[in-house]
Automatic annotation (TrEMBL):
InterPro entries membership: DUF4321 (IPR025470)
Tree of life domain: Bacteria
Protein name: DUF4321 domain-containing protein
Keywords noted in UniProt: Membrane, Transmembrane, Transmembrane helix
Pfam family, one: DUF4321
Transmembrane segments: 12-30, 50-83
Length: 86
C-alpha cells in the first residue's frame, strides 16, 4: 500500500536538490537566448566577502552565496510534482 507515510523524505530532498541544480543550469544556458532570457532572471544573496579565519598553520574560509532564478523555481516545482507521482 502506497501512502503518504511510506514516502521517503530523502528522496524528496534529493529531487528538490536536482531540480535546483538543473533549473540553475538551464537558467545559465538561457542567458544568451533572447526568447528565454526571462528564465535567468533572479536574485543573489549571501556573503559578499567571505569570512577568513587565519590560524597561522590553518586558514579556513567561510562563504555562502545563493542565486535563485525563475528556472530554478520551475525546477523545484517540477521535482515536487514528480515526487507526488512516485
Amino acid at each position: 500500500m502506497k501512502g503518504t507515510g511510506s514516502k521517503n523524505s530523502w528522496a524528496l530532498f534529493l529531487l528538490i536538490l536536482a531540480g535546483i541544480v538543473l533549473g540553475g543550469f538551464i537558467g545559465m544556458l538561457a542567458e544568451g537566448v533572447p526568447a528565454l532570457n526571462w528564465l535567468s532572471y533572479g536574485q543573489t544573496f549571501g556573503l559578499d566577502e567571505p569570512i577568513v579565519l587565519n590560524l597561522g598553520l590553518l586558514v579556513i574560509t567561510f562563504g555562502l552565496s545563493i542565486k535563485i532564478t525563475i528556472a530554478s523555481i520551475i525546477g523545484v516545482i517540477l521535482s515536487i510534482i514528480i515526487y507526488r507521482f512516485l
